[in-house]
Amino acid sequence: AQKVTQAQTEISVVEKEDVTLDCVYETRDTTYYLFWYKQPPSGELVFLIRRNSFDEQNEISGRYSWNFQKSTSSFNFTITASQVVDSAVYFCALSGDTNAGKSTFGDGTTLTVKP
Amino acid sequence: EAEVAQSPRYKITEKSQAVAFWCDPISGHATLYWYRQILGQGPELLVQFQDESVVDDSQLPKDRFSAERLKGVDSTLKIQPAELGDSAMYLCASSRDRGKMSPLHFGNGTRLTVT
Q1: How far does chain A reach from its first CA to its final CA, in angstroms?
Q2: Distance, in angstroms, between B64 CA and closest chain A CA?
Q3: Chain A residues with CB inside 8 Å of B101's CB?
Q4: Cis omega before residue B81 (within 30°)?
Q5: Between A52 and A37, residue with greater pLDDT
Q6: Across the interface, which of A31, A43, A108 has its CB nearest the CB of B109?
Q7: Which chain A residues are closer than 8 Å to B41 by Cβ?
Q8: Strand B19-24 versus strand B5-7 pairing type
Q9: Which of A43, A59, A77, B93 is the least crowded, having the fewest Cβ atoms under 10 Å away?
Q10: pLDDT value for B75
Q11: Which candidate from B41, B89, B100 shows the least CB-CB separation from A32?
Q12: What are phi and psi of A71, to 5 degrees?
């Protein structure tokens, strides 16, 4: 069975601080994809990034960076110099062959960035 | 990019009443999903369509829930009769194709409150 765990329920930081959101996953699949989504107060989940299980190269996109470590089954997300607009719920998701491609979501981490 | 349209945005209904939600996916997206998101949790898949066919409804409470996508475009999710435990956010998503690598594009959701 697939499982995604986001141990941090809520995180609160002050603007300009760096913050890392943790994601740990479980799967028996050899090939799988990991995703991060952002859900602002408006409710719409927005896709941020996708990584496949064969690509452990970490990625930086502006203030966002992702650290994928297969050895520890983790796919962490870091926001550098956080801004108030980053306040949202962030979800990590996993999709693999076991569930016929269905995405399994974690329970999310609520990030609050205070001015 | 075009958005996934959902309506209504909010719905309040009394238990034992019928309720329906509508979704129009991004044009050209063959795969459509209905997710339910309980407050404080990640989305859980209710039903997945490929064109007009249901490919997964294993988590859909079929005694009270039904879903259709008659022409392979827009979709309707119905609950009859609604129960108090159905209060949640109902999210529609679409993807370009079926498969584990395709990110999901979500609508704004319908917030259902059953009283």
Answers
A1: 41
A2: 23
A3: 33, 50, 52, 95
A4: yes
A5: A37
A6: A43
A7: 107-108
A8: antiparallel
A9: A59
A10: 97
A11: B100
A12: -65, -30
